[in-house]
Amino acid sequence: MTPKSRPKYPVLTQRQTAELQAELDAIRDEVMTGLGEADAEHIRRMVRIARLSAITGRGLLMFGFTPISWTLGVAALSTAKILENMEIGHNVMHGQYDWMNDPAFDSQTYDWDNVCAGEDWRHSHNVMHHNYTNIVGKDVDVGYGILRVTDAQRWHPKYLLNPVNNLALALLFQWGVGIHEMQMGTNLRTRKGRHSIRANSGPFLKKMRKQLVKDYVLFPALALWNAPRVLLGNLAANGIRNVWSYAIIFCGHFPDGTRMYTEAETENETRGDWYLRQMQGSANIEGGRLMHIMSGHLSHQIEHHLFPDMPAPRYAQISPKVRAVCEKYGLPYNSGSFARQYGSVLRTIFKRALPESGRTSKAVAARV
Description:
The chain is built from 16 helices and two strands. It is mostly helical.
């Protein structure tokens, strides 16, 4: 998106921003004071479904013999891993169910079926991404250290590999998330950075060993003569989960219409300004209940970024109210089908592989 084609984002007065903050706070308070057994039962039901799906998948892979049973096993295990990562792990580790005071759903101790250690994710995602959403140079999710997704990132010849790196990140997404906390792209350049990587790699290495042993040693070994079938099935299930998670995450922040920020633009930001940045820096995916659950309700990325500690199934309930607030203040509410949102993400990734014209580059450099 060049500066010439960049959409003009609405600017609110301080009074309007304060009023917007009050209206969004009221939406949050109404939901959070009404949480109860239905919300608790939802997350417990998701855990039961994920476990049953995992048992079914691993059973079909271990004891089946036909390609059909292998395919069904991979489908069931993929479903379990997606549910566990998206609807359960992501949301529990956000603290959405801390109010239950159930140790099984404690945000500080839960760890998911993923090579990314829970303690690393709680910092790189909960702290860095959600506080600094779409601030170039602060939000570690902008490009994940290897991609150029906005003209606010200075072009470098390495970005010619944008399409290739994007494919690799999609297939290996859990690994990209796993090393996110160490910020390899930045820290590998300096001795101090490399020291930082070594000092902070402990949780990732420990979790990586645990996950590799579980999926590629323990379960294949238990299958005896079916070990290769189980190993390949686990590899396929992890790959499917990776690609799906990547697609949902990228549709949440990089489709056309989402806004990037500079650090200067967010100095002295009020709570209302923060709300405004979350609304303009996020995008939703339209779909049915199955889409919402399998995406961990990140199909309502706008509502999630406004209220990350609100139980995710409530996002659909408040979505019309948030949209109404946007309309009242003339703000965009970025929502579209999965095909539309992901299509625009891919177009951006391919387009940003190349430099802008000299005139445009100077304008961007001056702005950043």
